[in-house]
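Exam review. A common question shows you a sequence with its structure tokens and asks you to describe the fold in words. Practice with the pair below. Do the first one on your own.
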Amino acid sequence: MSGDRLWRLRGRDLALERHAPPAPAGGEVEVRVRAFGVNRADLLQRAGRYPAPSGAPPDVLGLEFAGEVVRDAHGWRAGDRVAGLCAGGAYAERLCAHPRALIPLPASWSWAQGAALAEAYLTAFDALGAIADLRAGERVLIHAIGSGVGVAAAAVAAWMGAEVVGTTRSAWKRDRALGELPARAVYVVEGGDLDAVAAAEPEGFHVIIDLVGGSYLEGDVRLLAPRGRVVVVGLLAGAAGQLPLGALLAKRASVHGTVLRSRPEEERVALTQRFCAQVLPALRRGALAPPAVEALSALSVEVAHERLARGDVWSQLACVWD
């Protein structure tokens, strides 16, 4: 059968199929996808716990991609290298995107680096800047610092002038984070017990980026400095947690939740445009490192999912079409 390849969700299984190229709607840009990122949201959707939002393909996974513009359209030229975030459908060789939701990909970056850019860096930039209002000189704690968003958040926070501390559940990730990331300290945390962090960091933190959720929430509030801010980005440890209201009130603290996928398209476009204006120049000149990513073949999606489920991943995985 002719046509482009994609991975289609059949129940909880993935099937490699051919499909006709999508037809861009008015105002869209057609992109030939060269690589796509693999994220925990994909695992959740595959398990039936994170359905695609309205308007996104319900049976094609994938939230981020890198590729080439197919033809001149809406200010883009055929062959332009781009990356982007989408609400679904990136596990395919071709997709259509809003022209202002595309990020110009630096010429020196690989397709895999481009495919690992949007989900991690846009999430980190939004959480630290727009939501937490991070200021230079503040202390930031990042849970799951070895994850894709965690690695990006460490880089962005340090670039913004903050002092970075992290937690992880793996000793090997602690060692790698201390060797590769701009982190002053990284603690191995078991079962959400943050007492060791509290003992070692008595001044507390101005901002906590929590990619774990669950039992971490109570400890987050207790670790905050006065007027501190917690931003809950992920729920690796579950969606229910205890909130110590007395400590929250006494510290005049705040807890925020955020997700990109279900936001209206105009909000995702606005975030992308702010990122391109404020962060992309730093990535281009090397003031911020490109995403740390391991590249696999696009035919090895099952391997990528298995590794992600085991936690056997540093930062991010991307799958590259041959």
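Now try the second one, then compare your answer with the model answer below.
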Amino acid sequence: MKMFRILLAVSAVFVLCSAFTLKDKDKEKVVYAFGLAASFNDTVVYCTEIQVLDSVRLDRNGFLPMRELYSYQLKDFISYQLHKPDYTCMIYFSENRDKLLKEAGKLKKNYEKAEVNVQTIEAASFQFKKPEE
């Protein structure tokens, strides 16, 4: 009888612990991102709108997996669609949209203060796509 109680208690603890871990794994956070393209040879900086990255999860260190490939997507768009090959592209990402919006505003304000023309690339013309694994 005593062994039955111990087994029941251990199984109850196991069920509770696994229920909480399953709940955390099922709940995926949305990752938002925007890109920025700048050049030392031009007074125009291109900035994308904040977009939701499709089916992306940050790694355990809080970094975006394959983030350099997202930057290359923006670089290809700037190079081939806008015919501006000398731009350096960066991507900013976060799970918090408000935090990312604040960061984008701060960057735009700094560029405008330096008398650089900031042009927004609308989501209709450029959209980040999940890189192939």
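Model answer, second protein: The helical segments are 2-26, 67-81, 97-113. The CA atoms of residues 26 and 38 lie 38 Å apart. Full marks require stating both points clearly.
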